[in-house]
Amino acid sequence: MNIAIIGCGAIAKTRHAPAVAVNPDAVLYAVCDQTRANADALAEQYGARAFYDVNEAITDPAVDAVIICTPERFHCTHVVAALEAGKDVLCEKPLAMTPQEGAQILDAWHKSGRRLMVAFAQRLTAEHQLGKKLLREGVIGKPIAFRTELAHKGVEYASIGGPTPDFYDKHLAGVGDVMLSVGCHRVDLVRYLFDSPIKAVSAVTPTIDKTYADGSPIKAADHAMILAEMENGIQGSIWISWCDYGRPERGTTIYGTEGIMRLCTGPGVVVEKPDGSVEEHIVQQDPDAWQQITHHFIAYLGGKAPICDGNDGQACLLAMEAIRKSNDEKHRVLVEEVK
Ligand SMILES: NC(=O)c1ccc[n+]([C@@H]2O[C@H](COP(=O)([O-])OP(=O)(O)OC[C@H]3O[C@@H](n4cnc5c(N)ncnc54)[C@H](O)[C@@H]3O)[C@@H](O)[C@H]2O)c1
């Protein structure tokens, strides 16, 4: 299975390229970046062919599947082009910038008959996998409410590619805002954990602290507080931030009729019962866990069911559009309304 990676930045270097390189069922055949040095460096490291033009890479007949690792702003163009070229696609999250772009992708996907997956890597986090299994086993009874958070001090301090001090001035426009960059993971995660679409949201998504180099506030949300109602009646809050100047927060607490489950709020998964008992489930930490999504995609190419597909990518974009509308219009919004 010959794979081409499009976009040779941080996520390609740290996650997808190393994962493809060690996967026995795939070959990192090509890498492509409009910045020649980025493509050349990755090509040299993995013995892949370097391309500098996305269309040339994705139409190369030797390429079977494509991993899109360009900034958010280019996902729609690159995913549609790859599907139209008859390639299977793994797209980094989010699937696109808007549900309108998502609809174009779904149209191309359905016409192509190819495979399409979104890299919602947090579905595969060990704590989230165990938490979902315990929920299904009824360990805390019927889930009724949740709180989930994904917050850190901002991309200028830390990201998978290292600190990026010029992020807001140089890269923000290609990325969108804190919801597209970070929040999409949690909008997707609650759908996954509770096996239910989001029905309605009430959201506030302000700019509370980040500035451009000239000191003016960035023209994008850097913080988001969302109340979410799931179709199956579970209700909860989603807290997303680039302005959390302590240690990163990535916990989820789930409230059930027979107890509480805490995922990633400390080590492993913790279950607390009404009688005061506490069960701690230690989770084996795999240092390469973040590469699992790539291995999962390669297994999907081999016939395994995907952990998420284009429909999950679009469901996330619709929920995020409802969040945007709720913030702008200052009222509760049904996701159905933005379809
Ligand atoms: N799953 C995760 O947890 C996670 C973490 C970080 C980033 N990401 C996602 O990965 C994607 C890329 O993020 P990154 O941090 O690697 O970004 P990055 O800026 O480090 O890399 C992007 C690369 O794409 C190249 N590029 C930009 N526009 C291009 C174009 N039109 N044609 C060809 N190449 C182009 C750039 O030169 C750069 O090398 C984003 O969608 C981001 O949200 C996901």
Low-confidence stretches: none
Overall residue-averaged pLDDT value: 97
CATH superfamily of the largest domain: Dihydrodipicolinate Reductase, domain 2
Q: Mind telling me which CATH architecture of the largest domain this is?
A: 2-Layer Sandwich
Q: What percent of the residues sit in helical stretches (DSSP H or I)?
A: 25-40%
Spatial order of strands in the largest sheet: 14-13-12-11-7-10-9-8-15
Category from helices, strands and their pairing: alpha/beta
Largest sheet: 9 strands, mixed
Beta-strand residue fraction: 15-25%
Q: Calculate Rg over CA atoms.
A: 20 Å
How does this structure look, described?
The chain is of the alpha/beta class. The chain folds into 2 domains: 2-114, NAD(P)-binding Rossmann-like Domain (Rossmann fold, 3-Layer(aba) Sandwich), CATH 3.40.50.720; 122-287 and 308-338, Dihydrodipicolinate Reductase, domain 2, CATH 3.30.360.10. Helices cover 36% and strands 23% of the residues. The protein has helices at 10-22, 36-46, 54-59, 75-84, 99-112, 126-136, 167-175, 178-194, 292-301, 310-329; strands at residues 2-6, 27-32, 49-51, 65-68, 88-92, 116-119, 143-151, 198-204, 223-230, 235-241, 252-256, 259-263, 269-272, 278-281, 333-334. It has a 9-stranded mixed β-sheet with strand order 14-13-12-11-7-10-9-8-15. A 6-stranded parallel β-sheet has the order 3-2-1-4-5-6, sandwiched between helices. Helix 4 runs parallel beside helix 5 (99-112). It is globular and about 60 Å long. The mean pLDDT is 97. Nicotinamide-adenine-dinucleotide (NAD) binds next to helix 1. Nicotinamide-adenine-dinucleotide binds at residues 7-12, 33-35, 38, 54, 69-72, 74, 92-93, 119, 121, 160-161, 181.
